[in-house]
TrEMBL record:
InterPro entries noted in UniProt: DUF2480 (IPR018914)
Protein name: DUF2480 family protein
Amino acid sequence: MVYTGGSEILHFPLFYVQNMHTLHNNIPNKSKITALDLADYAPKEEWVSFDLAELLYEGLIVKEKQFKTTLNNLDLDVFKGKSVAVHYDDELILPAWIFMSITSRFLEVAQNVSFGPMENLKLQAWLKQLENTNFAHLKDERVVIVARPGIPPEVYAKITQLLSPLVKALMYGEVGLPKVIWKRK
């Protein structure tokens, strides 16, 4: 242990610890591994759920006049600037104009309107975000996908599809101890 003016510094072969709060790596990053955090590509917009049954007679039947009146009188303030996930019972038989009318009305204030369970729509937005990202800067790089709980398997599958043709090696985990998933031969 070395004492330096009130600040204790402990020296270890690979790391040094200063004030027992900060861990510094003494080994230079010779491996040139690039970390990619999938959480950085998650959709940032706020999502709001809306039950289509609120617009139907007894939550089941389309009465055109009542539907249009209810839709036109709907307070849209809660949807302003947000993405709306409109969900409904899959067993309902609904004409296509219902979906068009709802989309048209919500787009007056909402950022996006989609139909289905909110988690599925968020996942689709995440996958689309990855597809629209240019990963050319990772060509011939060794890339580790940072391990994070809660990231859906579909997101890991999509990034594998997108990066495999580009990167020299694809890994999972942390830069210091990655698990090799794929390596170009």
